[in-house]
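Researcher: Good morning. I'm working through a list of sequences from a screen, and I'd like to move beyond sequence-only analysis. For each chain I'm collecting a predicted structure so we can compare shapes side by side. This is the next one on the list. No need for commentary yet; just the structure.
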Amino acid sequence: MTTEKYVFGTDLLTATVTAHGAELISLRDPTGRELMWNGGPPWPRHSPVLFPIVGRLPAHEITLNDQPLHLPQHGFARDCTFHWLDRTAQGCTLELTENAATLTGFPERFRLRMTYRVEENRLTVSYELHNPDSSAVLHASLGAHPAFIWPLREDVPKTAHQLIFSENEPAPIRRIDDKGVLPEAFPTPVQGKNLPLTEELFVADAIIMPELNSHSVSYITPQKDGLHITWNGFRDLGLWMKPGADFLCIEPWHGYAAPGDFSGDFSRKPGLLHLEAGESWNANWSVETI
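Model: Good morning. Structure tokens for this chain:
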């Protein structure tokens, strides 16, 4: 594991990324206020990259290309060392490709590039997933998992915060247990565009919003200050925190955990990308202070 870090940004926003997991570990405003979770107990991460799965697979055997598939929750990218391709005053690019260790549990070739750029008060995180194989299809999911501080200010109660989506979100949500996505849907807690935030929302674990209408959400206090998060290329959204902890994860995804009864070949798992030989997929998310 490398601890190599890179700091970049502007007078309005400063970011820190580490080669381990290509993870965003710090985001600070001009006053020095930290906007990201500190990575301490009860969750040791900040903003892990979820690849080649989002969530977990069932405990029973899953295969890929007639080989047993062995993937930890959220995949392996978050625990791999990425290689620096570019570092400038405003950003950086890192890359991960298959190696002997990844091929043992995930027998597919891939190239994943992550680019971070700060412009004024906005950080944009871009993903390029490429299938370099000359004949095989790459089956995978990819997701973001940024954990922002909650409360945003010490003088504002957690329950005074809310999420405001760009569109109405009436569709049912999905929930998970220790086996995977539950078969039934649940009524959304979003009221039109607004989701008042309480820890009780997350007693039953993450809120999964598959194929939602919005492409952005504002995470704000009653004074209307906070963060505005946008995404492109991702079709699903996860919201998560551990009750008692001081963070809120706002997670654009392409894919989600497998149903608990899923079995057989991984390529048939719901929510996957299927990249033909030589094909690439691009997505991004951004966060700006408001």
